[in-house]
Design a protein that fits this description.
By secondary structure, the protein is an alpha/beta fold. The protein has 2 domains: 26-245, Rossmann fold (3-Layer(aba) Sandwich), CATH 3.40.50.450; 251-310, Orthogonal Bundle (Arc Repressor Mutant, subunit A). The chain is built from 12 helices and 11 strands. Strands 1-2-6-5-4-3-7-8-9 form a 9-stranded mixed beta sheet, sandwiched between helices. The chain has a two-stranded antiparallel ribbon with strand order 10-11. The radius of gyration is 24 Å and the shape is elongated.
């Protein structure tokens, strides 16, 4: 039986080995052509097309519904809230979240996707020998640990420079089926990503902002120019993932004939509990228990004052 000191050393050695094994695998820089992967093949239509892609982590094996989320580096509390909410809900529905790992909206979107246990990819404006910005290095590591990836078109040791951020934007927008802008000023670099998206024929989704807030001026400007306004996650899903909406609109059948009858009556427009019970010809006990089960299962929800509706 090893001594306690020996056991401690063995445990430390095991942890050290596994941590370093993870970093070695996760931080290995791979090189592919855009058309060598089903997910990145969409970049072959980007102008100019990237000559190569470098990545660390794991790229999706096939094309999935994908949204690019970008915005200001200094979001207001409102911008933080809507970015977190929309990124989380989209990732929860299986949408891949793409952003640029920058401070502000980018970082919030990545983190929310991770919290939803979704997939998120980051595109850098420099080579992958260094994750930038340095303050988001841990976020980058978390993305890799969750099964995501960090990408760049630049060779590993290429440093970040201003013009490379603008070049990078075409890849950030190009990977998405659409671009969501949650908060941006009138002269924000985010607007260049929106312009790239429009050039690529992508839908530009914009969260409306306070008309007195400078950090919403860019968003409101895009809305005046015809961008799609977003006030709920379904506004995006209807365009990039219509099958999800169709499935939600299908009327549930219920677990038995009583539940099926209640659902049928609710779908016909009846809302009042007493009217539902009479129309369904159900006794009080049966109606109450079956309605409760429907509520527990998330099929119906109470509106108050004994009024009910389908979720």
């Amino acid at each position: 039986m090893p001594s306690q000191a020996t056991q401690s050393l063995l445990i430390l050695a095991f942890i050290f080995y596994n941590v370093n094994t993870f970093h070695t695998k996760a931080m290995k820089i791979n090189k592919i052509l855009p058309d060598e992967n089903e997910f990145t093949k969409i970049l072959t239509s980007v102008n100019p097309k990237p000559q190569a892609l470098y990545y660390i982590g794991t790229l999706p094996a096939k094309r999935q519904p994908t949204i690019t989320i970008v915005g200001t580096r200094k979001p207001t509390r409102y911008g933080q809230e809507v970015t977190r909410k929309l990124a989380y809900e989209l990732a929860k529905r299986g949408v891949v979240v793409v952003s640029g790992l920058a401070l502000g909206v980018d970082g919030i979107a990545h983190r929310a996707a991770l919290e939803a246990r979704g997939n998120t990819l980051a595109v850098l404006a420099n080579g992958l020998s260094k994750i930038t910005p340095h303050s988001h290095r841990q976020l980058g590591i978390d993305i890799l640990a969750s099964g995501g990836a960090i990408l760049s078109e630049y060779e590993p040791d290429v440093p970040p420079m201003q013009h490379r951020f603008l070049e990078r934007n075409r890849i950030v927008s190009g990977l998405g089926d659409g671009v969501l802008i949650t908060e941006a000023a009138a002269r924000s670099g985010t607007l260049s990503t929106a312009a790239r998206a429009l050039e690529q024929g992508k839908e530009v989704f914009v969260v409306p902002g306070n008309i007195t807030s400078p950090l919403s001026a860019g968003c409101n400007q895009l809305l005046r120019q015809g961008a799609t306004p977003v006030t709920r996650v379904e506004d995006i899903l209807e365009v990039i993932m219509p099958s999800e909406i169709e499935n939600q609109l299908k009327i549930p059948l219920g677990d038995n004939e009583y539940q099926a009858k209640i659902i049928e009556l609710l779908s016909s427009g009846i809302r009042d509990g007493e009217e539902l019970q009479r129309a369904g010809q159900l006794d009080t006990s049966t109606f109450s228990s079956e309605l409760t089960m429907l509520e527990i299962n998330g099929v119906v929800r109470a509106l108050g004052a004994n009024q009910w509706t389908l979720r």
